[in-house]
Amino acid sequence: MRLRSRSGAQGGSRLFVAYAAASLVPVALLGAVLVNGYRDDAIRQAEEQGRAQAVVIAEMAVAPALEDADLTAGLTTAQRDRLQSATDFAIFHGSVVRMRLRSFTGQVVFSDDGSTAGGVPVSDPAFTAAAVGSTDVAVVPDPERDPGEVIRVLEPVVPSASGRAIGVLELYLPYETIAAHLQRQMRVTYWRLGAGLVGLYLVLALISWSTTRSLRRYAARQEHEALHDALTGLPNRAAFRLRARAALDTAPRRGAVVLVDLNHFKEVNDTLGHHAGDELLRVVARRLVGALRPGDTVTRLGGDEFGVILPGLGREEVVALLAGARARLTEEIVLDGIPLTIEASFGVALYPEHGAGVEELLQSADAAMYQGKRGTVNIVVYAGGGVAHSTQWLVVQAELRHALERDELVLHYQPKIRLSDGEICGVEALVRWQHPVRGLLPPSEFLPAAEQSGLIEPLTAWVLNRALADQRDWLTAGRTWPVAVNVSARNLEVPGFAPFVAATVAAYGVPADMLMLEVTETALAGDAATATRTVIDLVGLGAGVAVDDFGVGYTSLSQLRNVPVSEIKIDQVFVRGITRNPQSEAIVRSVIELAHGLGCWVTAEGVESAEVRAWLEAAGCDAVQGTLLSAPLTWTDLIETTAPAGHALPAVPAGM
Questions:
Q1: Nearest 10 degrees: CA dihedral of 399, 400, 404, 408?
Q2: Domain extents for the chain?
Q3: Which end of the chain has less neighbouring CB within 10 Å, N or C?
């Protein structure tokens, strides 16, 4: 059931590496800044040490030896001897590498080696600064040793007696000892700094690892929640589509898309509570997963609907596998101390036989499942030809909703003729859609789309209201015809349908026994208990109930015994063939006898010839409908073609 790929983990690793690399850059920059700072501090320390040493030499040795000296005129012998004596010790012991005493014009008036050339040019800013009373200190290359460095100090000479500068003392102090000490100090500093930076980087790396791991986990949770159902833990509708597309793109290119819908789930929620319904869904999820193969996909699409993807299987293998899953589902479960049996309908669409795309397969599977919920077979493989394209249905549903709002629907009425006297004994209301673009549409163009949506309820309500309004008018005109209204299986399953019918009948002031509600066999077979209760309630109101299209559905004799129907209408498939097909003849004769045995009125549909009418009359059929007698008529045409007395239709010539 895992939907994550390795790309998620690889992405997390790449994120960590990028984060770690990004952390290394500021750490390295920080290290470089600190190292340069420490080195600059060490050099400044050496310069300050050189400055102090130069001040001591200038004030303690040079200045006392130059009392009353005028460097522009040179030094006297006595002054030179005193200066030589005062500086010999420092020069001899190496505390001074080189020394020059210079006038403000740059002339060397004294040097440790007796030379009178060389030194810092007068134009040098350092010399200029010393000439005006400032001390300049710098670490410079040693001109006599390469490589090598010395501390150069330019210090103004100020004899204590005069208190004013008389020249510039140019000193070169040894830097090797200071450099060696600096290197030792820097090595210690480097180690400490390196250890600190490595520790800092490790901390940052740990933080980045922890952060990226948290991000990966959060992303994984978000991905899981986006593709999984929170209640059952199964993949959700979005994941179902991804899995289905993947299955269609991989070999072997065969398999099945299955929709599973629980029967009576709403009753569990309503009677035991939502907590019991939630637990039931979790049990169904576990049982479905346990009953299928490890490579199969089980998803929860929403509500009590599940989706299954079975790759690599043919029709027989799919049905066999689902039969095992259904057997596993139907095992008893106890919820809140009440034993329950789970029933479910399976709609199967095979690929590529029933569609090349996910949406097409889902539509086919939904049509098959809907057929299963209305019949006695719980596992239905889509047979084709029974469902429109999903996009087309959405368009039809949207337009039909507007049609109800704009009153674009109309009713036609097909009379039922009593064979004993040829008079009208009732009319059946048949809805048509006066489409503003496509013209008058028969029910087959829009009723299937309405059945698959919530529109069937307002559509039935519209038909019932219009039929009762028309009936009130023709009762006023002297036509005492019961009106029959077709009722969907979904209407029978909606709580409160019988009270709604009672309120509508009362609103129009027509007798309840003048209303006949026609239900199909599949409507009675779909949710037998609910349908039976609704039919009993309707009959209790005084309305009649007829079983329409009898013979092609799934109604059992026990259901007819338990449901108080008053009329059975034989489907036209059998009626049209009775004069040519002995089997159809036997079926129709048996249905007539069965219905009369149950105390029901019998009407044959689809009568198109006088020969068929004569046969039905001889067989004891009570009433007939068909084009031989009358096509569906508008209310106006129906009133105009009948007379109040007798309510008979004009004779129809043979062959029409």
A1: 80
A2: 7-181, 237-386, 416-423+455-640
A3: C
